[in-house]
Each structure stands twice: as C-alpha cells, then as structure tokens.
Design a protein that fits this description.
The chain is mostly helical. The protein has helices at about 15-30, 45-50, 55-60, 65-85, 90-110, 110-120, 125-145, 155-175, 180-205.
C-alpha cells in the first residue's frame, strides 16, 4: 500500500513542560485564527489576546508565520487522522463521515481553510504541502473504500483528485454563502463522487464503481 502523504503534527522537542506550553499556545492560536485571517492579527494582537508575552511566541515558533503554520498543521492533523480512521465502517458510511468532517473543519476553521485551499500567505510552499497532504489523505480514504487499496492507477487517481478539487471550490463558496445546510452539502458532494467513480469505470473497467455508486443498484 502506498504510504499516505498526510499532514501530520511535527514532533515536538524539549522538556515535557515546554511541549505542553507549545501545545497550549497552538490551542490558543487555533481559537484566535478560527475566523480571522493571517494578515488581520499582528503579533502584538496575538500576544495581548492570548495573555502571554510576545517573546514567548517567538521563542517557540520563531515568527508569526511559524506560529500560523504550526496552528494550521495541528488543525489539519486532526482532520486527516479522523479521515483515516473508521475502517470498521461500511464504505459508504465512511465516505459520508469523511466528507462531513471535512465540511465541519471548513465551517469551524474558515480562515485556516481559506489559507490552505487558496495557497497561504502569498505563494507559500509549506501551506501548499499541507494542502497536498490533505488531498492525498482524502484520495487514499476514498480509494480504500471504493477499490480496497490506495495504490491506484493514474487515471483512477486523477478522477478522485478532480473530485477533491471540486470539493475545495464548492466548500469555499459554501462557507462564504452558507445557503445549504451541511447535511445537504454533504449529500451533494457524496453523489458527485458517485459520478466521478462511474466516469473512472467507463474509462477503465478494471476500476469498477462500488455498488452504492452504481445507477443500476
């Protein structure tokens, strides 16, 4: 099986106390940046709202950008871990669970989601790597459910990637204009996935769409 290139939390270094302190600062930052963009908060703002000395943030993260990336990595790690779990569930339930958790993440971490999908602070290769890690984790999850493995052929992978990219665009629009409920949005995206799986089968019959995605089921 191909190893997932999922976003993971970097291993923290230092004493137990410093690791705990760093995690506490990240938890504070996740709340601060949940609905606030990177540019909207200065380091002085962050320190004041977090009730810590600015130097403490620099000590652990070197810069505002380093702090923000650590926050995004931590948030995304939760999403990726959740998407990769639930192997005991039927495939269709796992897909619904994965898409719903993705939408919940975007809904509750809107600023971070926009940063990840839109490319970060300028052209930020580290943020792009986080985005690519999320994409690969979701593709692997869907491939495991649909085909029983994640090491799929290029055509099948491109079909799933195309769906994931459409999910990103639709989700960006949804959090800007939430006229649909999350349940309706989830159902729509799952049905769109069925269409992608059928298209893959049409072009490559060695990758048949799973039963729930078939029109004749």
């Amino acid at each position: 099986m191909r190893q997932q290139r999922a976003a993971v939390r970097p291993r923290a270094r230092g004493t137990e106390r410093s690791v705990a302190r760093r995690a506490e600062l990240i938890a504070i930052g996740r709340k601060l940046f949940a609905d606030t963009s990177y540019d909207a908060l200065s380091m002085d703002d962050i320190a004041r709202q977090a009730h810590v000395a600015k130097g403490l943030i620099y000590y652990y993260f070197q810069s505002k950008r380093g702090y923000y990336l650590a926050i995004i990595q931590d948030s995304v790690a939760d999403l990726v871990t959740f998407a990769a779990s639930g192997l005991e569930l039927p495939a269709v339930d796992r897909v619904h669970r994965t898409v719903d958790s993705y939408l919940r993440f975007a809904e509750h971490h809107q600023a971070a989601y926009r940063t990840i999908v839109s490319g970060g602070v300028g052209f930020d290769t580290e943020v792009h790597a986080i985005r690519d890690g999320v994409r690969e984790a979701i593709i692997d999850t869907i491939a495991e459910g649909a085909y029983g493995r994640s090491d799929i052929a290029p055509l099948a992978r491109m079909g799933l990637l195309s769906w994931v990219c459409s999910v990103e665009g639709a989700t960006l629009d949804w959090i800007d204009r939430p006229v649909l409920s999350r349940d309706t949005m989830c159902d729509l995206l799952v049905k769109a996935l069925g269409g992608s799986l059928r298209a893959v089968e049409e072009l490559d019959p060695s990758y048949p769409a799973p039963l729930p995605a078939r029109r004749d089921a």
